[in-house]
Amino acid sequence: MPPRTRRCMSTSSRNCRLRPDPNLTTRHGVLMAMYGCGVFLTGDSGTGKSELALRLIRRGHALVADDAPAFECHANRWIGRASDALHGRLQLRGIGVINVPSLLGPAAIQASTPVDLLIELTRTPETDARPLSGSRPRSFEFLGTTLPGWSIPVDAAPASPELIETAVLAAGLHRKAAETTGAATWN
Asked: What is the CATH number of domain 12-181?
C-alpha cells in the first residue's frame, strides 16, 4: 500500500480567486487522493477514468469523487469533494454504480482534498505521433488557475495505475526542485 502521509510538493492552486457565486463549481472527471496530493483525472467520456480510479483505489489510494467533483475555493486553494448523492460511489462501464467503501473498505474514500495535479487522459489520432520524451509536466487551466499535470494518451491501452503514481511522484520532485533552485519547471 502506498504511504498516505507524504505531503504533495505542489502549490499550484494557490492563486484561485473567490468567485462572486458562492455555489460549488463542478467539472467532469474523477478526483483522487494520492500520496497526500489531490489528483484530478480528466478526459473525454470513455477514456477509462473510472476504471483507472478503481485500480488506484485497489493500490491503496482514495476516491474523493467520481464523475462530477464539486470544487470551491478556500484559503486560495481549490478544494474538491463529491456531492452527497455520489459520495463513495464509482460508476463502472458494464457494471454500473458501486459503493466503494462497502466493497473495498472505508479507507478507500476520502471526504475532500485540495487539487494539486491534473492528469488528462487523451485519445490521439493515429497520424499524431507524440514524442516519448515528455519528461516534464505541463500547465493546465483549471477554474481560472494554473495546475501542473500530464496529458497521457490512452490509445492502445488504458493508462496504468503505476504510470499515474509515477506522474504524481515526479510532479512532487519537479516542484521540490523548483522551490530549491528558484527555477520554473512547468511549461
From this structure: 3.40.50.300
How far is residue 186 CA from its own chain's centroid? 17
Taking residues 116-137, what's their average pLDDT?
A: 68
* 99 alpha-carbon distance from chain centroid: 20
C-alpha cell belonging to residue 14? 494557490
Phi/psi for 64 (5° steps) reads -100, -50
Q: Among all chains, which residue has been given the C-alpha cell 462572486? A: 20
Would you put residue 62 in left (φ > 0), alpha (ψ -120 to 50) or beta?
A: beta
Question: What pLDDT does residue 138 have?
Answer: 82
The DSSP 8-state label assigned to residue 46 in this structure reads T
| Cα(27)–Cα(183) distance, integer angstroms | 31
Q: Is 85 exposed, middle or buried (0-12, 13-18, 19+ CB in 10 A)?
A: exposed
* Alpha carbon distance 42, 67 (integer Å): 9
Q: How far is CA 156 from CA 111, 114, 160, 175, in A?
A: 34, 32, 12, 31
- DSSP for residue 1: -
Cell of 159: 493508462
Q: What is the signed CA dihedral for 137, 141, 145, 150, rounded to 10 degrees?
A: -20
Q: 179 versus 133: which is more confidently predicted?
A: 179
Q: Tell me the whole-structure pTM to 2 decimals.
A: 0.79
